[in-house]
Amino acid sequence: MLMPRQLVPALQVSTLAHGDFKLAEDGATNFSLVVFYRGLHCPICAKYLLELGRLQPEFEKRGVKVIAISSDERDRAQAMADKLNAPGLRMGYGLSLSSAREWGLFISTARGMTSIGIEEPALFAEPGVFIVRPEGHLYYGAVQTMPFARPHFDELIGALDFALAKNYPARGEYVGAV
User: Does residue 112 form part of some domain?
Assistant: First the structure.
């Protein structure tokens, strides 16, 4: 399990238009926002990433670098990027399922064709949203077992405004006896 204020696992993926992404070298001023999505087959992911692309400038104003990552191969990731038409949004692809599991993501098996007529991969990671400090410590994490009920990006922006203004620490770090 990932723990706040502790180092997150290494994360390295290729991106469609922004070279190789290495979280340890991201160089964000305040945070990196890592959004793991299910893949091209997921219509909810497309809507979610459209919102992320729309709000990306707001994150950037706050010193937050944004990346969306899936376990899809390049061609499927490109098809998702084409749907989104958000050229500034870094789109990572080829996330290994072992890396997804290290990040605490749930793994699902294919159920065939989705409601938008795209075949699910045999195995794929369910969504997760993580905010990581520049030194690699977890600040915030949310994982889902399902494609719906994800954190809202506009609420995350408000939370980041508060956290930055108040120097609010990551919470949930206690690991002692209860």
Answer: yes
